[in-house]
Write a structure and sequence with these properties.
The structure holds 2 protein chains of 2 kinds. Chain A is built from 15 helices and 4 strands. Chain A is mostly helical. Chain B is of the alpha/beta class. Chain B has a single domain, classed as P-loop containing nucleotide triphosphate hydrolases (Rossmann fold), CATH 3.40.50.300. Chain B contains 10 helices and 10 strands. In chain B, the strands form 2 sheets. Chain B has a 6-stranded mixed sheet, sandwiched between helices. A 4-stranded antiparallel sheet of chain B has the order 2-1-4-5, with helices on one face. Chain B is globular. The chains are: A mainly alpha, B alpha/beta.
Amino acid sequence: MAGEGLQFPTGKKIFVTARPFIIALWLSFLFLPFKGIRASLIFFFCSSIILFSFRYVSGFKKMFSGMTQSIRIKTRSSAFFSGRFPVVFRYSAAVFLLAFPLISRDYFIDIAVLAGIYIILALGLNVVVGFTGLLNLGFVAFYAIGAYAYALLNTRFGLDFWTALPFSVGLTVIAGFLLAIPALRLRGDYLAIVTLGFGEIVRLILNNWDSLTRGPNGISGIAPPEIMAVSLGKLSHYYYLVLVFVFLTVITTKRVYSSRIGRAWVSIREDEIASSAMGINTTVYKLYAFAFGAFWAGLAGAVFAGKMQFVSPESFTFMESVLILCMVILGGLGSIAGVVIGSLILVLLPEVLREVQLYRMLALGAGLVLLMVFRPQGLFGGKGVFIRN
Amino acid sequence: MLELIDIHTFYGPVEALRGVTFEVRQGEVVCLIGNNGAGKSTALMTISGIMRPAAGDIFFEGISIKGVSPHRILRMGISQVPEGRRIFPKLTVRENLEMGAYSGRGNAASLLEKVYTLFPVLKERHKQAGGTLSGGEQQMLAIGRALMSSPKLLLLDEPSLGLAPIVTSKIFRTIREINREGVTVLLVEQNARAALKLSERGYVLENGSVSLHGRGEDLLNNELVRKAYLGE
């Protein structure tokens, strides 16, 4: 169906020819309020010429399709750990990841740590949205609960990171169950609205429960994690911690995905009635999905609180939920490698575009719209989760 | 084997089943016929646990299964082929069948062989995505998938839906064959003639309750049935 790369499903030729112009028109239309008609027109001409010429640059398309193909194979065989991906590449990637803090500036390490936290979050949300097909617009609530739980346990009771971690993650999982109870009765749009409400409720509680959370002032002075009495306050140390957690998340979600539970999730996504006719306890597995997703959000929250050494409700707005959802959708619903790449793109892109400060969110938005029009399954999403040829 | 006693089922405020009572005996093929909205599919969904009855009781092999969740009912040996087939279109034929064995009743490998002998075309196409099969093949896949849980009682909801007459008769022959191997069948059909010919006994549902029942042949010759459901 819609899975044919950059082709329109209907294959209407006129659209294919006109596509660069449509894209250029759309981009220049967005520029209109900023720069006026003349600049927009110039922009329209330039960008349509550039986009149009892409079609005739020999090899460009081939390169592009080759690239997506190799990535698709990677997604399918979970190549990073199995043998299909070139060994040299795997080892050099591993070496690069390990050596990264030694060769780069703090600024980049900081971004990498942030990207790592978002990867954990996006993979968690991917379980709920990508695997099980339940739209969750309030995912940030779990992130907030994890972060605040660690912040409070640390500042009030003096628990260190490793002691507090099981509690804060456990609390988040319980919150996941609590949200799942009303959510299980709902489907589609209604579910989305309930989860959205949940996200807002949690943020408002954090904002207004002054005696516990100190309201909008937030909680400061949170201790960073320690390993054998060595504080991980240094960025590069923190980088390794996050790297370990990211790998843990990737491996665990992958394993669970290919287990009996993962099968049940996917089958609920594909057809809920058929799944219950197959003897899948849909209630229980939806509950698992919520709780399992919340688990990673709680972990990411605690890691985030430890890194910033400060939490406030500002970090957990609805926009944050949307951003995480965008990462999942951009990379490809249900594809683990895709979600990782999607989060990397959405964390790195604003940094890369910092030069054009004013327009970066605009460019991001326009990019997402174009992606949804021309590649609705996401950058690296396949036909579905069961990708077979 | 299966007994429904005065079952009432609601969709919100709408009462779809108003006191349905019928039974299916071991080894039988029984059909429910009736017009659109008479409650045939609701009756099946109530048996398989997807819908919960508000009143009445359902017994399967002497045990009440009223209000039991669908996955438990399946484990007890009642398997449903849902209306409109509802196969997983993105999964291959084989994966679809494997999903049918999810409940872990019986040995999946030998059941798969059995389904393949029953429907050779599924074996031919085992690597093909379910959604690319023809309507008849999809129906075979849906039936095969339901058989993968090695059921004692098979619930079939409109197996002839949207199929050409020649394919329908093929499906019906297979249902007969499945029944001969010891699976009791409860069939819901719009195609009353074919269903009654196949069945030992039939029930006519009207406005949510049983208005008529009897042996398949008797119903075929019944004046009322001939007029209302056979178009004569």
